[in-house]
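Example with several molecule types.
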Amino acid sequence: MTEAAPRITVAIVGRPNVGKSTLFNRLVGKRLALVDDRPGVTRDRREGEGRLGDLVFRIVDTAGLEHADQGSLEGRMRAQTEAAIAEADVVLFMIDGRAGLTADDERFADLVRRSERPVILVANKAEGRAGMEGAYESYSLGLGDPMPISAEHGEGLGDLYDALVPFFPEQDDDEAEESEEGAPLRIAIVGRPNAGKSTLVNRLVGSERMLTGPEAGITRDSVSVDWEWRGRRVRLVDTAGLRKKARIVDKLEKLSVADAIRSIKFAEVVVLLLDAATPFEKQDLSIADLVAREGRALVFGLNKWDLVDDRGPALARAREALDRLLPQVKGALIAPLSAETGEGVDRLMAAVVKTHEVWNRRISTAALNRWLEATLERHPPPAVAGKRIKLRYGTQAKARPPSFVLFGTRTNELPESYVRYLVNGLRETFDLPGVPIRLSFRTPE
Ligand code: GDP
Ligand code: GDP
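Resulting structure tokens for the full complex:
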């Protein structure tokens, strides 16, 4: 086995039952390396080769400790956790996003904090946005912003990917903040069967181009191809249309939402290709919703535009449907195009680049707080049970997608409608069309 670069080691740490093994199994799949299955031997640490998108790393998990039946359980857990942390280049500290913080969480967090290793705080069991209440409490751990994921359902892995990328030396230039020009912009093209994905891939990449097949550093069955658009590097990642073109899949797959999920996680901008004759069908909406939940930027391609006679009204109808059916990506760009003739393909790429810029945008704390003040003045939060909910100040926690934290009191009682008012305000004031906006709240102790 040859290794070009030293392996990055990732440790999953947390109290029992938060879902460490589940995440470990998801990242390692069937490639589990060293499991000691001999009866009577307590499995203290497991390790394996983890993969997420094109990242490959050594992963260490401290699961199984709760089954230890001799000695001081707590002492052993502590020792094993410390050992795992010591080996790690980055620690995934996991809490249960539904359960809220426990004394055990605090104890493990303490070990992590004292190690001074880089840490990514992961709030698990947050599928379908459920139970983020517990995650908000975790701000008090002082380990940064909790990242909601669901190890069991595979949600939030795109965010995890983004968080891990900076720890991989050869991927340094992928950090948009460091070198915007050098890093390829990762796009995926998804859509219903027959929307025209393969045709568009051919059009974009050109048939003479070599496709990058499965090779070192790329997940076994994923395909990607790099090309340039107006001097800008673009990487088309694991897209159903691409796989079809590359004949990696022999028989024509039945393309479905499940295929889209894979591509979406590792793209920065997702192009959702619609058939202009039947745009925004149920399956299109599911895919769009998934893109928003995964925190990716979204652009719509309205394909087969060559077959549309009443272009003006058709585009207006599509815009109206988008605003009505997908408020979570309000203002997303719709690019009419014909993958077959090439008309509008340039416009689509311009929309992709523009949306990528929005997705990466950072709003200054001063501007954000000016906005907050004006917003509260115009329409203050309601009183709940006779008491005012107060919002005091805010900051942008991260970009990719734009994520904000507002600090105040009783914020967990804010009604949904008020949260929507805030999100819409952020979107309009800071011109953030077509990207999911994340807004969380925090009550300082
Ligand atoms: P560990 O002790 O931290 O390794 O936790 P496990 O991976 O053994 O998971 C503990 C329990 O949580 C199991 O019943 C899992 O099925 C469940 N679990 C793990 N991840 C998730 C998740 O994302 N969502 C939900 N709802 N349950 C999960
Ligand atoms: P996929 O299943 O999404 O990959 O779709 P394909 O690329 O295989 O296209 C499905 C069908 O739509 C094929 O017969 C294409 O020739 C046709 N098609 C794709 N793009 C266009 C377009 O822009 N205009 C027209 N008229 N037909 C198209």
